[in-house]
Specification:
The protein has helices spanning 5-15, 23-26, 80-85, 129-137, 294-299, 305-315, 441-450, 454-458, and strands at residues 47-50, 53-60, 69-72, 75-78, 90-108, 111-128, 146-150, 155-170, 175-191, 196-201, 208-213, 215-219, 222-225, 228-234, 240-252, 257-271, 276-280, 284-286, 318-322, 327-330, 333-344, 347-358, 361-374, 378-387, 394-402, 406-415, 425-436. It has 459 residues and is mainly beta.
Length: 459
Amino acid sequence: MKKNILALLFIIIPFLGFAQQNNLLYLMEKNPQTNNINPSFFPDCKWYITLPSVTNMAFTSPFSVSDIFQNTPGGKVINNDYVLSNLRDNNTLNFNGSVDLFGFGVRASDWLFTFSTAIRYESNLIFKKDFFGLVLKGNAQFEGQTASLLEKNSLEGIVWGEAAVGVAHKINEKLAVGLKAKALMGGLHVNSENTYIDVMTGADGQNLGFKYNLDMVMSSPFSFDSTDLGSAEFSGVPTNFGFGFDLGATYKLTDKIEFTASLLDIGFINWNQNLKKIVSGKPNNEYVFTGLDPAELTSGSMDFGNLMDSIKNMIKDYKIVDGGEAATHALPFKYLLSGSYFILPSLKASLLYRGEVRNGHHYASGTLGLDYTVGNWLELIVANTVNNGDWFNPGAGASFTIGKTFQFYFLVNYISDFRVVNLQSTSFNFGWNLMFGKSGNNKDKLSKEAGINLDKMNS
């Protein structure tokens, strides 16, 4: 069965990912899985078991529906110039996620020992503003120029499994530190490497030439027929191994002020299994294209035949060949910095800054959150995230503990205002844990609220 390269991309991109928005989980007080984001965090129990959970699932787009439809006195319309004005020169589409499989933690006085397993996936696609400019307005705007629609190394996606062993220690009443060492097993790695699309427009603005090269590198536990992407056969357990670690620290300046820092995914995976290259048989094709008319697009009278034939000509005759060299790739590095003020022992206001480095690009977000605990059974959090230049992006979550042992939580970081048409990013988390024994933190909180020392009263 003949496949084209778009089929591969449509299958892989949604499955892969990129990590960004588990900011709300980081700011919670009672969830043991916060230790996976900062190894210095101590849970509010003596020991716990984490059950299979979606600890992060996130998506980020460079534009929203409101960036496409412009409000006019006559209603909403698609205006080419308006759409293009809402795009950056380089636009990023991201997916990411983490599925925790199983884990546990045991607390011994000022020490915490943890074990966890997870499947992680991250992806990143960077595309140029000129791509939309060509589709919406044709090639006349590039008269006598060469425009880059897709640059090299614009797409990367990885899927990997990890098993982590961690230790945290409260050095004194103010400072706690933590470390996680992680054994990594890479399942799938795709990189567009030398894939690119350039557009050359003649001096008269009429002749449009595409210079296209497909040269992707892939490592996976599957083998393929040289002419059929649908011929994948499982060839064995992945053998792409690596190592990583996380670092964390928590510092209590006073009873009311706390600072934290976390460095995540410092590590690498050596990709060497079933190395394949997907290359184009005809890297250069030329045809004339004059763009899309929004009026014809909305009326349904648009003829896509020429455009689709051109795309088919560009991507046909690809080949899957043995190739590529074993390479060591770093994980997407992340760091988080936060400061919290305890308005009450049960009410905390926090400010979090999150940064991430992927493919030489830096991405950042900031979250202001308010976390409130009700006894041992309920924790509520509301927050606002500044992300991708948008200032009002609310999120909320809750954690319920039943019978002091079974904990269920869910978080929705709705990276938009309350109108769906402005949605550019979103993430959600949900899962459950079993917790046993109290750590003594609640006694400390009650003492602070009452202004007394319970230990002295009991002696």
